[in-house]
Amino acid sequence: MSDATNEELLAEARRVLVRSFGSDFTLPVIAKAEGATITDVDGRAYLDFSSGQMCATVGHNHPRIAEAVRGAADRAVHINSAMLSPEVVRLGRRVVELLPRPLDKVFFLSTGGESNEAALKIAKKVTGRYETVGLAHSFHGSTSGAGAATFIPSRRAGYGPPLPGTFAIPAPDCYRCPLALTFPACEYACARVGFELVDRQSVGSLAAVIAEPILGTAGCVEPPPGYLAELQRLARARDMLLILDEAQTGLGRTGDMWGGDRDGVAPDLLTISKTLGGGIPLAATATTAALEERAYRADFFFFTSHLNEPLPAAVGLAVLDVIAEEKLVDAARDKGAHLKRGLLALKERYEIVGDVRGRGLLMGVDFVRDRQSKRPAEAEAEAITRECLRRGLFLAATRQASRYWVWRVAPPLTISHAEIDRSLEIMEAAIRAVVGG
Fold it and tell me: Residue 20 has what pLDDT?
């Protein structure tokens, strides 16, 4: 695998690499990835139930992705961002064909943060206003605008004031309702009360609301049915645009093509990233022809050194081909139901599993000390996760101290039923090893 061992490489990493996301470099150093399996430099294999950073939608190193990279390398890897390549034009057509109407314009960037930054700038440009609303505990990126709309305390503290005019409304968290209400009797009070508070703080310059169809970093919070439609109604009542951040939910992961499909919501702007590039940096921002025309006439400007790149576009085309040919949207729905049944069985057997939520192959497993207080079982969950890794299963967690500790379960859409069953066996064995039967 490698001339250096895992521990030798980790020691070198600690010496030379910046720790940019709270990690002290303790996870295995990966030498190879294929399908749902990653293998470290010492030859140990793990099922990857994070899909990398949720980007390996069609599995790690899918042959079609590798072929697309090789082909693009023979033609053009990079060109001036003011120019276009045939791959970019074809990918634009393919993405537009999949978008919920009336969205019919798109352009391509590198990361989800960029795509959200661009969407927010379009919204501000076409409305002539600057105030934005996001959901508490949301994550939209690390750039200035997207970061300002990211309402996770640990992601905001210590960097000085964010962009002015950014407001948070309560997250639609039915498991830990911020208003101590229950759905459907609440009638979406979290959104209505949130906007009433926004109205009292706004200076009259409301431009857009941005939301994830499932709040991944917030602990895989799944809004109740109809919530996105209510959010759109509240936005339109204030002449605001709705932006849906489909980084984690787009292109089939939830069992629908788009996370907003369940509620029948077509936003004014839609952003795509992780699921489009098959592991290659590729993101997109989509809007309507009418809004694109208004933005263009208002001199909208968003330019990077890697705008509309040919190599990522070729990969994006291959990803869309695989999703269609292998019927991965249907697969996510079917395999997700199988996985959820197994996770719910764990919940039935173990008190520490407080909640299982999500759709398709994007689910959260919420670890609690007890089901009454719902306080996170932080130490036990950490130990269970380490035990899963020791037994050959990698699970990524999302957490906020004293609030929640959740596995974000998001394997590749190409995962097999046998691999799902194996993962469930490992999860149960790990839980039993840490907390007993």
Answer: 87
